[in-house]
Design brief:
Elements: H1 2-16, H2 46-53, H3 55-61, H4 66-80, H5 90-101, H6 103-116, E1 124-125, H7 126-139, H8 149-163, E2 170-171, H9 173-180, H10 189-200, E3 208-209, H11 210-217, H12 228-241, E4 248-249, H13 251-258, H14 265-277, H15 287-292, H16 294-297, H17 305-314
Length: about 325
Amino acid sequence: MEFRGLVMCFALCVVYTTSKPTERKDRVHHDPQLSDKEHDDQQSFDYDHDAFLGQEEAKTFDQLTPEESKERLGMIVDKIDADKDGFVTEDELKTWIKKSQKRYIYENVDRQWKDFDLNSDAVISWEEYRNVTYGSYLDDPDPEDGFNYKQMMSRDERRFKMADKDGNHFADKDEFTAFLHPEEYEYMKDIVVLETMEDIDKNGDGFIDLEEYIGDMYNHEADSKEPDWVKTEREQFAEFRDKNKDGKMDKEETKDWILPSDYDHAEAEAKHLVYESDTDKDGLLTKEEIVQKYDLFVGSQATDFGEALVRHDEF
């Protein structure tokens, strides 16, 4: 099955890939920037549009009239207001921004969902996932490529059970997303750390020492000079990764390395949008307050009118 081949290829690349000698493998998970545009509201609200809608969705609003933009924004506000109390809080806005930025993840899960939900009951069981992904291995447990699919299947099953937050042995859409993208979910971060340590900890002592740390990033070849970045990584390990200076990284030190507490761009943008739109300064946004500042949130043809005139003149 073509799909199964893609899954296997992805898993092999993530778990067992070895990089070229001068290539640097990065295991650190960072939240992406909200936009590649400069955040300068004196010049434009393009950054805010990208942050609030996601870059691709923001482009669609540039084709709308102001009236159409306001109407669509009003419908979005209804979705943001999770508790349906008629107000949008800073936390609700932050949650929406994070979801908008990760829309590609949800779209990816949607594409895969029908391949695994074989009986179309709106949940996926471990058996369904296993049969689709490892069906050929189950038929032939001694594959010619010699790869240990049994170990990978066991590891996937462990992650599936962790993602099954309510423990009912089935994954709904959100739990399946946590299974496929565990780094995006707080309750899945321990499994991300565990899997990373299993990949790098070659001697099986439950820690990552300096040579294992470097060996995961860099494959040294005989008679080749070690790149400067490898020396830098050795220094990083000693100065920052190995916090208790015992020569190795434990679980918490590994977590600090691969899942750093980055600056929360979504939180900062949520605060900014509330500050700019909260007319009565009560810390909450009504639909009217948001729609009144529609050009800050979503834009329209009018927002880019000057730019449109320039494009017209160029033609």
